[in-house]
What we know:
The complex is a heterodimer of chains A (about 270) and B (about 475). Chain A has about 270 residues and is an alpha+beta fold. Chain A contains six helices and ten strands. Chain A has a five-stranded mixed beta sheet with strand order 3-2-1-5-8. In chain A, strands 4-10-9-6-7 form a five-stranded mixed beta sheet. Chain B folds into three domains: about 85-160, Thrombin, subunit H, CATH 2.40.10; about 170-320, Cytochrome Bc1 Complex, Chain D, domain 2, CATH 1.10.760; about 340-470, Cytochrome Bc1 Complex, Chain D, domain 2 (Orthogonal Bundle). Chain B is built from 15 helices and eight strands. In chain B, a hairpin with a 5-residue loop joins strand 3 and strand 4 (about 100-105). In chain B, helix 13 crosses helix 14 (about 440-450). The longest helix of chain B has about 35 residues, at about 290-320.
Amino acid sequence: MKKFWALxxxxxxxxxxxxxxxxxxxxxxxxxxPMSRTGVQIDGLFYLILIIVTxxxxxxxxxxxxxxxxxxxxxxxxxxxxxxxxHKLEIIWTxxxxxxxxxxxxxxxxxxxxxxxxxxxxxxxxxVAEVTARQFEWxxxxxxxGTELTTVENPGDLYYVNELHVPTGKxxxxxxxxxxxxxxxxxxxxxxxxxxxxxxxIPIWFDVREVGNYDLVCAxxxxxxxxKMKARIVAQSQxxxxxxxxxxxxxxxxxxxxxEAAASGDE
Amino acid sequence: MSLTPSLKPLALAGFLSLxxxxxxxxxxxxxxxxxxxxGTLSLMREAQDGTKETPGVKKLLDDRFGDPQHLKAWxxxxxxxxxxxxxxxEVSESEPGNKxxxxxxxxxKSLPMKAGSVKFVTGACSGESVxxxxxxxxxxxxxxxxxxxxxxxxxxxxxxxxxxxxSSGRMLYMRHCSHCHGTxxxxxxxxxxxxxxxxxxxxxxxxxxxxxxxxxxxxxxxLSRIVKYGxxxxxxxxxxxxxxxxxxxxxxxxxxxxxxxxxERKLVAELSSDFSEVAYDSRLKAGEKKPEIQxxxxxxLAEDLKxxxxxxxxxxAEIWSAADTEEAAIVPSMPRVTDTPESRRRGRELYLSKTxxxxxxxxxxxxxxxxxxxxxxxxxxxANELYNEPGLHDIWDNLNQPRNLQLGMYRGGRRPIDxxxxxxxxxxxxxxxxxxxxxxxxxxxxxxxVLSIPFESDPGATAIAPSAAAESVAAPALVxxxxxx
Lengths: 267, 485
């Protein structure tokens, strides 16, 4: 029975090694491959931490299992060794982890700055829309085609809800704000996550690599309807976005007369 | 085994959570029911419950609408309950006990592509539902999985997959809507108490933001817009990502609940003047005898109410079907007037004019602070009594102050046609009246002005010269003071 437990503790670090080796190629860790440039870097950080944690976990578990095995195979009647700790050991296991933590925090600074520090935003990035979270939906405001997005509303701005159209292949900036409580703009596939804080306009940037529909959900428990904040980011070519905005403008200016409907291709 | 005592509470907790899970999965845990309105409950007990021979209001309602677990499709109503109504053309048997029925539909309609079950509506098997094991969409031949208990005859009407839209609508409604709008659509779900404005109580049959004329009901398209895009400025969120068939099912279920509530109101209206508890008491005081009133009620239930139970359904069917027709839709006679400073200026003049008097509620600069917002309104529910708080109220008895037009928040939509409809038909159920007699050109001027208000640097000052404004401003309506108690 003693040996069983020793083997039991050998077994788990072995499972951990296997799963950590297989998982990345199988896509077990993430909902999809990273669909934005910063997403690739964020995944890199994740894997860095994964490697450190796996090595630490496996090493300590094997030491534990080895100690158990030694104990299990000892002759019965042999005396246990009493130890009152070791200063040397304690210093080692304090310094080594703190070096690891400092290493992790330094190695992610560049990526953090790129994502969060406004002066580091890509120069070509264009402001495409303002996204206002509220209980429980995402209100989108695009600037009037041909004008710049500002933090205040302007005549001719285009409004929609729960569907954000962005161009692919270029960095875009979203102004994030909230009407009520804290929410978080989270797109799992794009690896974008940013809290929306009452009273602040927070710019976030990302670039989408491929055309497609991506999830936009709320990642900050914002109330009983939190789960309802399910929206869609539609990434498409710049010309398709322009076409979409043109249609949106026509719809928003609809005056209910027949000619208008026919002209805009609606109904 | 010294561990046993400490394991006991753990095992108990495990058992309890398992028990909860099992209980939670049973149907009984989700039993829900439709509530009766205050109107119904204010009637004499005999009018609510009826007798063995004559149904009361509750039974009339339950017979036609059922309860959430057993919804009923009252064919008369303009609701797409789902399924196709067919009739049996011929019955055959390929081998003993293996019934095949050939189904036909009315001319102009088509047989469904899929068939899971048929439910007999008339004939000996009326009410029975039978699974279909094989379906031929071209010939209409359905092989029944089991033979029904009684004989099927040619000419029996049966519904293929009847009620599927309604039942899926119910599932979606319970998941997404009922916590605010309530199981019965009474706007009184568990989360409703935390909301301002209150969720809509459908049972009046009135919805505020429509594209239909002032006297018409809301159309399916309007409901669809509300479900898809939400109502900014309220707690109604957008359900844009739902699939089209889900939108359709929810809208049909909302119509079902609305019709149930409106039907109930109409039944109650027939009875309440003579047979409410209050009326009963005052009749007793006036010297009438209890048995007399009782027998009068019996007679009324047996004859008048029985008849109106059917005609009221017809009336509802007519007005609700009419809402989806072209005649009901508001179509401006001219395209929007170009949005020029002159047009806005004209709009502002009209806004301030005595005839339209928009400023009386919305305020001179559109801030939603007109004199009416501080006046005490009469409470229509209680004769000669004023509301406790100043301001305008809607038919749901909620304080419903005029919109602050400076915010640029348009609950009924921000398209010019939306604003046109708000002015043309008014906001139903609220104190925003219909201005359908105003020339369409003038309405467009007002629309242009209203849309410009949020962007004015000094609202109310720039768009019109002060002298012109002073000339056309209506005298503020008299502010009624609250009566001292």
